[in-house]
Design a protein that fits this description.
Four copies of one chain form a homotetramer. The first copy, chain A, is an alpha+beta fold and about 120 residues long. The first copy, chain A, has a six-stranded antiparallel beta sheet with strand order 1-2-4-5-6-3. The first copy, chain A, is elongated. The mean pLDDT of chain A is about 95. Chains in contact: A-B, A-C, A-D, B-C, B-D, C-D. At the A-B interface, α1, α2 and β3 of A face α1, α2 and β3 of B.
Chain lengths: ~120, ~120, ~120, ~120
């Protein structure tokens, strides 16, 4: 497994294209916080994995500079969440990706993420 | 363990006060990404754990609305990173927290996080 | 003029729908900073005006909680920039809007903005 | 006046140091939105002016990449708001600034801003 962190959490890479990627995570008990809901860090990690895959898809390594997340809806235990990353801008030095998180069964948006990378 | 996600990743709660919290994480091999550096999701999760502890410290449950992160410096495997959350504003309905991530040994800032919560 | 600030800067409302809005601004000399390029605040204000129009389009007043912007490309003096706001999520209490800024003549993306509102 | 945009809005530079700056703006009628409160773009522009002054204080031109704002409290017409920018991290290529907005008379925090620049 080339990405130990994703393996630790159970994040799978579903699709990978030039500047795009989709990752998936099923919410299990060991991803819950003290409220009994999925930890924000778990959803973030899912989004970040799609962002990293998409931003590194062109060959040159990309380093994350800035990210932000809006948490929109709660997710139930057992649900599978998909994160779909799209490249919205790219120059030689920086690039921007939008990642939308939705539940797999009904397509409800649960979070929106945006990230910016730098290519050294 | 009341927070299974933090237990999964190895995030410890070091300090907890009224509106403040410090969490710690030592970077192990299973937190690395495909570049061989700590996954952004691991550092985010550390920050988010401090944010959640601080924002829930007043008794009423707090729900995360928005977060953002600036990644500033790379972290080596084996290093311990501290996340210190401070309450910078609070009204009856919303509150804002700043979380600064530093390496434990030399205090270098590696990331800055800000989060906003809503109390239903 | 019901929005004095927009009148001060020269921001026009081009379109307004349920949860959507488009605003426009032509970059004039009095919007420049000390680099001789449009001030970030001018582009932000254009985006924020579309965000405010879209988020208040349902009747109930909406209060901005959080916004973020990625600056992607420089804009020349004389260019007209369009900001198009789209509602990406809405519950009874909060809503999220994405605003994309493009040049009118060639449609190049110059900035991406996301905002979250609360309805008291 | 070297910064026409700040002159247009009435933003003054109060202090400028190495990596730091303070700007001030008094809320006048022409800065109001359709709610009759100061436009978010006016407060943002005040913060952005402090950010720009601080980030360009070292001599090399700095280009804004990403910014974010939390709006915390309403501001009355007639109030003077101060924006204080502090450099929280700097490498050869990028730097991070935090800007805190407070009312001049009672020091209440009304917004928090963070920005990241790139030096080409």
């Amino acid at each position: 497994e080339s990405d130990p962190y994703c393996a630790t959490l159970g994040i799978d890479l579903r699709e990978l294209g030039a500047g795009s990627a989709t990752t998936a995570l099923t919410v299990t008990d060991d991803l819950l916080n003290f409220h009994g809901t999925p930890h924000g860090g778990a959803l973030y990690s899912l989004a970040d994995a799609a962002f990293a895959a998409a931003s590194n898809s062109h060959g040159d390594p990309a380093v994350a500079l800035e990210t932000n997340v809006s948490y929109l809806a709660a997710v139930d235990v057992g649900a599978t969440v998909l994160a779909t990353a799209t490249e919205t801008h790219r120059t030689r030095r920086t690039a921007e990706y939008e990642v939308v998180l939705t539940t797999e069964t009904d397509g409800e948006r649960v979070a929106t993420f945006r990230g910016r990378v730098y290519r050294p």
